[in-house]
Amino acid sequence: MPVDVHVRIDVTTGGPLAPVEPEPGPRWWSRIRIGYNAALAVLSLTLAGPWAHVLASVRDEESLAGAWVMALIPLTVLAFLDNARRAEAAGAHPDLWAPKWKAALTRLLLWAAGLAAAFTLPITTLVYALTGVKPA
Question: Which of 42-46, 54-58, 129-133 is least confident?
């Protein structure tokens, strides 16, 4: 004699045991601290000048590719370190100042490296790429 077994499962997605949807956090563009980054960018100009001079001397005496490598390696390292310092400062106790200062110093160095590369290399690279002639 064959046995017919029918199983019916009703799943409800509400009720007191359902997980509550978290409140959406602020969007990334509302979390950008414009004044903080602008102040660090202005302060970083004191470090960007000497680094731009080093990059310009490498660009003029050695090669444009060498100057780009010299600019991009510190930028990559500082970007990774900046991300780590930001996470460390966000997870630290609010009364601790050292993680905040380390994060600000890393962001200052990142701004300096980025501005030095932006001041020194793109125009020369564009001239070289468009004309094929290295500027004197």
Answer: 129-133
